[in-house]
Specification:
Elements lengths: L1 E2 L5 E3 L15 E3 L5 E3 L7 H11 L5 E4 L3 H6 L16 H7 L2 E4 L7 H8 L7 E4 L3 E6 L2 H21 L9 H10 L6
Parallel strand pairs: 6-7
Antiparallel strand pairs: 1-2, 2-3, 3-4, 5-8, 7-8
Length: 185
Amino acid sequence: SARLPDGNLIVTPTGSSLGRLTPESLSIVSPDGQLISGPKPTKEVPLHQAFYATRGGRAGAVVHLHSCYSTALSLFPCDDSSNWLPALTPYGIMQLGKVRLLPYFIPGSTEIGDAITGLAGKHAAVMLAHHGPVISAKTLEAAVYASEEFEATAKLAYLTRSLEPHALSSEQVQTLVKQYNVEWD
């Protein structure tokens, strides 16, 4: 989704294939989720609304996917749900900050939006357990790039999980956080 200059949101319609979208097939909804034009919007509007409401100008776009490796990784036990995605490369940190793992909710439920709202805008990206990642950024291009980095980092974590890879040290992470002004707390 993306926030339009008038504050409305342009979102994918329900049941759509990303590869078959056209400008005419997109839905426009008001900030409170009311359909303005286009087909019936995705049932996931509440999670998009939550990011826009809590992240303000830091969220000009929100990408939600059902990607393979990140979803697979969410099936394993988690040591730290507030910092779920391991620090294996600098780019995941630079693009995403800390990724919060949220529990499983029924797709389209208002509980997803409530859980994101409860984070008070402190996370640019979250992982919905058994479901998929949600990534916000200032622009759609930046959100897409960050979602690619999210899945690449999840793939590395999944493929190296049993090998006990050496993650970046706390000092290395803090250097990245400071140098690239990453939201980390």
